[in-house]
């Protein structure tokens, strides 16, 4: 199933009429949940007046800049569609800035700092090797996205090694992030210019020591990227 672009989902969340997207939402629970979450963000931001917002710090603007970045040429989607945000989608990004400003420490209604929540997701066995499990978490470390991977129960790789990838299941495009240590763990920095919404799957593969940087085709764990 071909899912709509994030930009089109943002337009629907803002109340725009995009017929092809609304038709898709009628049969896709995952995209419907994403639009519901975006709509809740829009509603929350519209209830806040500009006089109540503190100035957004540099980190917030840095994150928004990354999301609005057109990216590098090798990140262009297939089919030649330009990676430009429509005007309404740009407004959606501005709405997210407002909400990020609201949840900074010290600006909750009761004056207390908000809890720090790091999104996590589970990794499950994949392919012929039906053993092992894991968990991934995504965090912003000094303005760069960092992915922590912790696995358990994987078979010993012997002379081989385990590698972590981001995967776009629609096009099978992959981004190599790095390798697991002998304990089955890794803290990996996601390359600048990667739009996380286009790579919603985390893949762990078993790789031979053959000098070939491409995916071996042997995936052992997979799970969603925790956005």
UniProtKB/TrEMBL annotation:
Positions of region (Disordered): 207-227
Keywords: Membrane, Transcription, Transcription regulation, Transmembrane, Transmembrane helix
Transmembrane segments: 84-108
InterPro entries xref list: Anti_sigma_zinc_sf, RskA_C
Domain of life: Bacteria
Domain Anti-sigma K factor RskA C-terminal: 89-217
Protein name: Anti-sigma K factor RskA C-terminal domain-containing protein
């Amino acid at each position: 199933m071909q899912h709509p672009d994030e930009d089109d989902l943002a337009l629907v969340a803002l109340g725009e009429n995009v017929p092809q997207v609304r038709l898709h939402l009628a049969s896709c629970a995952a995209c419907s949940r994403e639009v519901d979450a975006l709509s809740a963000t829009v509603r929350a931001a519209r209830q806040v007046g500009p006089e109540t917002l503190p100035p957004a710090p540099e980190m917030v603007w840095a994150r928004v800049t990354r999301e609005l970045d057109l990216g590098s040429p090798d990140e262009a989607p297939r089919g030649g569609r330009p990676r430009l945000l429509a005007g309404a989608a740009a407004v959606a990004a501005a709405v997210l800035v407002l909400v990020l400003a609201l949840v900074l420490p010290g600006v909750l209604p009761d004056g207390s700092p908000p809890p720090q929540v790091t999104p996590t997701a589970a990794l499950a066995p994949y392919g012929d090797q039906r053993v092992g499990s894991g968990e991934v978490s995504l965090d912003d470390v000094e303005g760069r996205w960092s992915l922590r991977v912790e696995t358990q129960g994987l078979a010993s790789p012997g002379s081989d090694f385990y590698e972590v990838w981001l995967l776009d299941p629609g096009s099978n495009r992959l981004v190599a992030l790095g390798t697991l240590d002998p304990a089955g763990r890794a803290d990996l920095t996601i390359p600048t210019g990667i739009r996380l919404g286009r790579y919603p799957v985390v893949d762990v593969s078993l790789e031979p020591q053959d000098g070939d940087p491409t995916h071996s085709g042997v995936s052992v764990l997979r799970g969603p990227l925790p956005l």
